[in-house]
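To whoever is on call:

I kicked off a structure prediction for a single chain this morning and the downstream step that reads the tokens threw a length-mismatch warning. I double-checked the sequence; it's 213 residues and nothing unusual in it as far as I can see. Pasting both halves so you can look.
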Amino acid sequence: MRMLTQNEYWSGEAESFDAIYSHKKSNFAVFMDKLLRKAMYDRFAYTLKQSEPVVGRTFLDVGCGTGLYSLELARRGAKKVVGLDVADRMIEICKKRAKDAKLDRTTEFVSCDICKYTSNYPFDITIGMGLFDYIKEPTVALNRMREVTEEKVMLSFPVLWSWRTLPRLIRLRLRHCPVFFYSRRQIRGYMNRAGFSKVFIRQMGPMYFVTAS
């Protein structure tokens, strides 16, 4: 069984993924999202809180999806936000939304893998939410994030064993999308090998929120 590339899978899932946050779905589906995806909403709020002060700072949003984090940071006064995603459709949506919201002067969206991304300047903060769920070997991506970040990175990793692990694994494998899970020990090992000396890991339901510098 051939697994889809991340571009193939997420370009096809862009609208349905976006509906998790936009709530453009049935009332029952919205209720189930609030019940089963609470950690995703908590992660969004916590990331914004940990990004303060936003005004005047630069952000790199790796795996930016449809631009939820990037555009909100721009709205809050970020000096510059660059969003990366390997899914072409996600980037199309981001660019349109930035233009519609008149945020295109402070945002840039690039269809690119973080491992191949080059920048002429470092970022104050790099975020990667829901990114490492789909990366088998995180080391190269983490190394690149450390290289382009001056202050800290904020990342999420799915918990190795939680009530959602098996259902999610089965659901995504049936859709030909690989997914990976981590223990605290594995995460700390990856972060240390990438050169991060200060690593804080906080569990949020079925995911870990990681802050590192």
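Update from on-call: the warning came from a stale cache, not from the record. Cleared it. Sanity check on the structure: Residues 6-47+55-212 form a domain with the Rossmann fold fold (CATH 3.40.50.150).
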